[in-house]
Design goal:
About 25% of the residues lie in helices and about 35% in strands. With about 600 residues, the protein is α+β, with helices and mostly antiparallel strands.
């Protein structure tokens, strides 16, 4: 094996300086000239730059001459930091031997720092902790170093203190990578095994798979096989990222590069799959392959009906690059034709929504997000229901199960009470806690996913003045006392407003939304009743009063029968109008479900 190769990734909480450190490493190794340098080089989407987060993994090869005079090949695999992309992170970690753990000197260890650290330790990686942003006036590097020492056991004196923005002490990080991270192991003569840790779609070369060759070698003229999707392919080209794509004739065990497959969709070449040779295939795939399941579902509808085909096209193109996005057409009485889409989480949903609006210039309405429920029917069959509108009649099923999550919240100890209160109100249960340092507490809860997806993160941030951070992972499906809450407007059910809620919350959620709809639905020429309906009964009602015309204005004095006659005539007109009249429901009403004040 080549002893001069080092494969590593950078893990951190959002906004702790991961992409900035990657920029400095590229500059320090001369991979990118100062003239070509832009901020967040590896984040090539506008959204990634704006939000300051990495959404897609990427890889880059650097050549570095160490102080001992040897030149090393460093492969940096950049990983997403957000919890929604946890599977991609786990695959990127499986492609490395080491990880640089970046911690902000002003914020200390946070929830996602811990979550990614545990993932890296499980993957058996060598951890190199680094404290960033020491140039800021509020930095407390000594305290944070102590916190890290308690956490991982590496002496505080050995932790490099850097400023990625200013370029301070970057050479210390590079030296640590060379001396602490082991060279990759793997037999170059064994049958080929290469792990796909990410992919993107290129309109000329098809799907470009980012690979780490674990054993054997990939040659540009051989026929390759994808083990999970059982596809054989002849690569269009193979090569390395430096940081642009550079064509090579072969990739050897231990190296990181790309294979342009020529495949037409990312779903044929999924993250976590193993590439082997079609002539001499490996006996088994590399471990850890999963088909990622969406967790959050929402309806996406075009504001203008004629944009339906454009929306379909936009979703098709986004799915080429993002295999975890699923969608199917659906029709709503209120919003007409649109798509039911599945996302990995709320952040993933927000990214897709912004990309549709920005890259394809479409005006869309997104309904309130919901989660997928398991419905156990009377005959023992299990149905997956991802839209309240598809829930069968309550006489046909025995129970509904909802997804529960393990939630880790990391907060300064002064906000302990308010965090407990927030989780308790959201049906969460306390499990355990830990104090990584005297002033910070990590609390672990179990909580239903449906309670996490609407406003939970915003409220956690506002209750803790922005200091708390959270991370969550799927636990299991559990039975719950859940009911379908429907809304009738003018006697007609509006499917886009219906929701599956906990029995105890149905009454006040129904009441709150009815009051909100009363403000939002414009007055008609006739009275409009708004009703909340659950378990076979109406639980709340409000009327939008009709616009009135004073038909008695011209009767000054005169006989009462004349007035009655005019009022009867008006009453008949209103009745006829009500029979033919349609209530126009504004789009704000559908978004009101999201903005309901928390109890």
């Amino acid at each position: 094996m080549d002893e001069t190769i080092r494969n590593f990734c950078i893990i951190a909480h959002i906004d702790h300086g991961k992409s900035t450190l990657a920029d400095r490493l590229l500059q320090a190794t001369g991979t990118i000239s100062d003239r070509d340098m832009v901020e967040q080089v590896l984040d090539n989407m506008d959204l990634e730059r704006e939000k300051g987060v990495t959404i897609k993994s990427s890889a880059v090869r650097m050549a570095y001459t160490a102080k001992n005079g040897n030149t090393y090949e460093l492969n940096l695999i950049d990983t997403p930091g957000h919890v929604d992309f946890g599977y991609e992170v786990s695959r990127a970690l499986a492609a490395c031997e080491g990880a640089i753990l970046v911690v902000d000197a002003t914020q200390g260890v946070e929830a996602q720092t811990l979550a990614n650290l545990y993932l890296a330790i499980e993957a058996g990686l060598t951890i190199i902790p680094v404290i960033n942003k020491i140039d800021l006036p509020s930095a407390q590097p000594e305290e944070v170093a102590k916190e890290l020492e308690n956490l991982i056991g590496i002496p505080a004196s050995e932790i490099p203190l850097i400023s990625a923005k200013e370029g301070l002490n970057i050479d210390q990080v590079l030296e640590a990578v060379i001396y602490k991270i082991p060279a990759p192991k793997g037999d170059r003569e064994a049958p080929l095994k290469a792990l796909i840790f990410d992919s993107h779609y290129d309109s000329y070369k098809g799907v470009i798979a980012y690979v780490r060759v674990v054993e054997g070698k990939i040659q540009s003229n051989q026929t390759l096989r994808l083990i999970a999707s059982r596809k054989d392919l002849k690569p269009v080209e193979i090569g390395i990222f430096s940081p642009t794509m550079q064509v090579k004739n072969e990739l050897l065990a231990g190296e990181v590069g790309y294979v342009a497959t020529g495949l037409k969709t990312v779903s044929e070449c999924r993250v976590g799959d193993t590439i082997t040779s079609a002539q001499k295939p490996a006996e088994e795939a590399l471990p850890g392959y999963l088909t990622v399941k969406p967790m959050v579902f929402a309806g996406i509808y075009p504001v203008e009906g004629e944009d339906f085909e454009n929306l379909r096209e936009a979703l098709e193109k986004l799915q080429l690059n993002d295999a975890s996005l699923v969608y199917e057409p659906e029709k709503s009485q209120a919003l007409n034709f649109g798509f039911r889409c599945g996302f990995l989480g709320l952040f993933h949903m927000e990214i897709i929504q912004e990309r549709i609006e920005r890259e394809y210039d479409l005006d869309i309405v997104v309904t309130a997000p919901s989660v997928a429920y398991e419905v156990i029917m009377n005959n023992g069959e299990t149905l997956m229901v991802d839209s309240p509108a598809h829930l069968p009649d309550e006489n046909l099923f025995k129970e509904i199960r909802e997804p529960w999550m393990e939630l880790q919240i990391f907060t300064p100890t002064e906000f302990y009470g308010t965090v407990m209160d927030l989780v308790r109100k959201r049906r969460g249960t306390y499990r355990e806690q830990d104090y990584p340092s005297p002033s910070r507490v990590q609390i672990i809860f179990e909580i239903p996913l449906s309670e996490l997806i609407v406003n939970f993160f915003d409220e956690l941030k506002s209750r803790t003045r922005g200091y708390a951070s959270m991370d969550y992972s799927v636990l299991e499906y559990r039975m719950g006392q859940l009911v379908k809450l429907e809304f009738l407007v003018g006697g007609e059910p509006v499917d886009a407003l219906s929701a599956i809620v906990h029995k105890d919350d149905a009454y006040h959620k129904g009441q709150a939304l009815v009051s909100k709809l009363k403000e939002l639905i414009p007055r008609q020429q006739f009275d409009v009743a708004i009703q909340a309906f659950t378990t076979g009964r109406i639980i709340s009602r409000a009327n939008v009063k009709a616009m009135r015309k004073d038909v008695l204005a011209k009767c000054y004095g005169g006989d009462i029968t004349r007035k009655k006659k005019l009022l009867e005539k008006q009453k008949k007109g209103k009745k006829r109008m009500k029979m033919v009249g349609n209530v126009e429901i504004p789009q704000d009403a559908f978004l009101a479900v999201l903005k309901l004040e928390d109890r």
